[in-house]
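Entry for the shared binder. Reason: the reviewer on the internal report wants the predicted structure included alongside the sequence.
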Amino acid sequence: MITVIKIAIIGFGVIGRGVAEVLLEKKEEIQNRIGEYSIVAVCEKDGVAYNPDGLGWEVLKMKGGDFSEGSTVDIIETAEFDVAIEVTPTDIKKGEPGLTHISECLEKGSHVITSNKGPLVVAYSKLQELAERNEVQLMFEATVGGGMPLIKLVRNDLAGNEIDSIRGILNGTCNYILSRMESEKLTYNQVLTEAKELGIAEADPTYDVEGIDSAAKVVIIANALLNMDITYDDVEIEGITAITPEAFEVAMERDYTIRLIGEVSRETGSLKVSPRLISTHHPLAVTGTLNAVQIRTDLAKDIVVIGRGAGQKETSSAIISDLIEIFRK
């Protein structure tokens, strides 16, 4: 029986630091749900910080040279921890370095919580088999929709339902660009420049605007929630770069808008990310950086979830919910 839950955070950028801050700030509240815990290790590209007795608020002040020499692999191999929170950057093609981190943690018998889409896109089935073989859990609520609950909603609250399809807006950057083009009658390039200045779009927004990020989430949804066995190459992808203000004018004349929709359908076999016409009165016609997903089931019929799909606090919310799910008293 675990007396103190020991946590390792792998990746200590914006998300990793956000998770650490929540774990320290809300410690009493979270411990009431799961029992006593401590952060024993954090790993980042500049080094590691490790204390088997626990790291406190001082870890949030650490930068660059404050970390000890060592690698993430060293910590995984030698440190004692019960759960690893893997939040390194996503690589859709190879899944690294997250794929190695997650595999090795599962192999040693540690639970894993991740926001990293890459490893799940590349090797979902293998990672799940590894988790089951070692009797630990792989949790990934934060990979799809950030703070918007979807994975556990379908697996737990909709248990007993057959999921016919899941479709919706899975990328907040694209939704911001499209809704601003609609409301302000601006060009794609004008709004993209604005989004970069506001920090909503990355300096290189390719993953978002070309539909790559949404397609990765479609793969995870299909495999994890609809029990498919698909790869990224199975998804038909079209981004938003060719959308014009004129296209919105035509759509609005008919009381429609344009949104980038990712869809997984068991009935039609559709695996697709593309700009779609949707009614302005439809629940998916959200604006700004919001995400929205429509889950079609046989018993509960249509369920719609709306929430913020990215951000430090929002992603931390999903990770903490996974932690509580694993260790709930």
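Summary line for the report: The first strand starts at residue 5 and ends at 10.
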